[in-house]
Design brief:
Length: 162
């Protein structure tokens, strides 16, 4: 018997310490919450992706009374980007959440389903996606979706070559 030790490097910094390009992407994610439809949870999430051509695409969470029918901001944003720019790799995604009258103090992290979709897009384009998770108190950043989803399920599990 043996152990497998997994390590994830997460860069932690404040908004003021962020580069101008990160601030711009975070600001776009924060603006995206204005289009959130979240009457049930009152938890508004906005996301913004930076494409390799410099375009920024935004999206927000959309809820439904039949809860499983809603969709997270990250997936809406990524699907919109892939539909509008099908040949354009995603370089980075920023995520922000708004609840109880303000942006959350802790960074907003993507759910498991969003992580799986982000990984598929990372693998599809063979391009690492930086994930920037905004919170008032700090920002978390990882260099790749794989850092958020160790031992992930992908093409290899289906017997396909990546």
């Amino acid at each position: 018997m043996d152990y497998l030790n997994l390590t994830t490097k997460i860069l932690v910094y404040s908004y003021d310490e962020a580069s101008d390009s990160i601030k711009k992407l975070v600001d776009e994610a924060k603006k995206a919450i204005q289009t959130s439809y979240s009457p049930y949870s009152d938890f508004k999430v906005g996301a913004a992706v930076l494409l390799s051509n410099g375009e920024i695409v935004k999206g927000s969470n959309q809820e439904n009374a039949a809860y499983p029918s809603g969709l997270c901001a990250e997936r809406i944003t990524l699907f919109t980007a892939n539909s509008g720019y099908p040949e354009m790799p995603v370089e980075a995604i920023a995520i922000a959440a708004y609840h109880d009258g303000g942006f959350t103090d802790a960074p907003c992290t993507p759910c498991g389903a969003c992580r799986q979709v982000m990984l598929e897009i990372e693998n599809r384009y063979k391009n690492r996606i930086r994930v920037i998770m905004y919170g008032n108190d700090k920002i978390y950043e990882v260099a790749s979706v794989k850092d958020l989803l160790p031992l992930s399920f992908g093409q290899e599990a289906l017997g396909e070559k990546p």
